[in-house]
Amino acid sequence: MPRLPTPLTLADTDTDTDTGRGRRAARRRHRRETATAWAFVSPSVLVILGLSVVPVAWSLLLSFQADDLVTPSRWVGLDNYRALVQDPHFSQAVRNTVLYTVLYVPLSIGLGLVLALALNQRIRLVGLYRTLIFVPFVVSATAQGVLFSFILDPEFGAANSVLHKLGISPQGFLTDPGQALLALVAISLWSGTGFCVVVTLAALQDVPPSLVEAARLDGAGRRHLLRHVTLPALAPVLTFLTVWQTINALQVFDLVYVTTKGGPLGSTTVIVYFIWEQAFKNFTAGYGAAAAYALALALLVLGTVPRLVRAVRGRARAGHRLEGAAR
């Protein structure tokens, strides 16, 4: 039987016209919605650009110039960065910052872990204790500096009064070059440990109770529970605290400015205070910008290295799993 030809149909012009109109209306509606959205978002975008992106780009250009914020600047290239390498004051600021960081970060995390383990127990008034430990973290660094400037005053401070009653000779504290940086570390521990306690305590309460009970049934004591159950569960949190506290330690400024202003004899001059001193005290803004970007590079490396380590470990584990599956 012969095959019938396929019938030809004409397009419905009314339907095509309605479809085209609907598409054009949808595009106009989309453009209106986009314009409305940008109208709401643009103030925030302008604030972000004006307060972050533009200053960052401007300071980067400034780091390659000799600028005193008054007279016209001149391009000097990498001279500011070369001068940083040879500047003994910058080297001293780097040493002070590294020493402050090395002392403050492990002590704050260690004390936070110990206090969190203690506050994770069922004891009376535990909520009050947690609040009292966290309150110093809320106090601003400026208020801390003013408070401890009175407490650690070598002549009229409460600290030397207590030492006198205990039969110990008065100490210089913030006025002694050998004690000033240690005093700043102690003040920072008083305020910064509370944050570590709260974060670690929250992580402790997320440890699966079934895992703890299983370890106890296997005969694990407190020391083995801490080493083989608790600390592995806290590893991501402890890594976060290490990075967070290190970044905060490298950027310390308020406390130094209020208490010692970099003294005595430069023993508490940290990098950020050195940057402020160069830019707004010595009026060498280009040199201060170069120091700021040296610090920014260190912070960038600090924030990138843990991610690279986790990525390498993840790939290594994936490789071991593939090898095990192949076998």
Descriptive account of the structure:
The chain is mainly alpha-helical and 327 residues long. It is built from 12 helices and 2 strands; from the N terminus they run αββααααααααααα. A two-stranded antiparallel sheet has the order 1-2. Helix 2 crosses helix 12 (285-326), helix 3 packs antiparallel against helix 9 (222-250) and helix 11 runs antiparallel to helix 12. It is extended and about 115 Å long. The mean pLDDT is 85.
The strand order across the widest sheet is: 1-2
Rounded mean pLDDT is 85
Oligomer: single chain
- Number of beta strands: 2
Gross morphology? extended
Helix/strand order: HEEHHHHHHHHHHH
- Strand portion: under 5%
Task: Considering the chains and any ligands shown, give keywords for the structure.
extended, 327 residues, mainly alpha, two-stranded antiparallel sheet, 75% helix
Layout of helices and strands:
Layout: H1 13-62, E1 65-66, E2 74-75, H2 79-86, H3 88-119, H4 126-138, H5 141-151, H6 158-165, H7 180-204, H8 209-217, H9 222-250, H10 254-259, H11 271-281, H12 285-326
Antiparallel strand pairs: 1-2
Quick overview:
This protein is mainly alpha-helical and 327 residues long.
